[in-house]
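re: ur question from yesterday

yeah so i grabbed the chain u mentioned. its 183 aa long if i counted rite. heres the sequnce exactly as i have it in my notes:
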Amino acid sequence: MHTEPRPDVIARAKGPTTLRQVIVAIAFVVIVAAVAFGGSLASTGNVDGWYANAEKVPWDPPNAVFGPVWTLLYALIALAGFLIWRSGFRMGGPNDARPALRLFVVQLVLNSLWTPAFFAGYPVFGAAAWWVAAVIIIALIIVVIALAIAAAKWSRIASWIMVPYLLWLCFATSLNIGIIVLN
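ran it thru and got these C-alpha cells back, copy pasting raw so excuse formatting
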C-alpha cells in the first residue's frame, strides 16, 4: 500500500540545507561575539578606573566573575538565535520566526548599548550615564521576556536559554541601580 507523504513532512524537508545552517550558526556566533567585543572595549579602562573606586552594593561580585559569565551567556544567546532561526523553517517557505528574530535583534542592540552607556558614558556624562544605562537594561529585560515568550513557539530550548540571561540581567540591574544609589 503506497501512501502520499504528509504535508508537514514535506514542509520540513524544505528547510535550510546543512551548509546554510552552518553558515548561519557561524554568523550568529560572529554577530554576538561582535556585541561582546564592543562591550569589552567600552569597559576596558573603566573597570579599573572609575568603577574600581565607586561604592558598590555588598553583593557585587569580583570583576573576574563577569568575563566567564558573559562568555557563557553570549554563547547561549547565539545558540538561542540560531535555534529560533532554524525552527522558523518548519512550515516550509520563508522563515516564519521573523517576529521572534526581530526581538532577538532588538535585545542584541540593547545589550550592545548598555555597556558603553554604563562604563564609557560615565567619564563623559557623569552620573547621568548610569541612569541612561538603567533605562537601557530595564528595556532589555522587557525585550528578553518578550523574546523568551515568542521563542517558545519555535524552540523551547531557546526559550529556556533566555532564563539564565534574564536572571543575570536582573542581577546586573541591581548592580547598576546600586551604583546610582550609593554614588
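noticed a couple things. The CA atoms of residues 83 and 158 lie 6 Å apart. also The radius of gyration is 20 Å.
anyway ttyl
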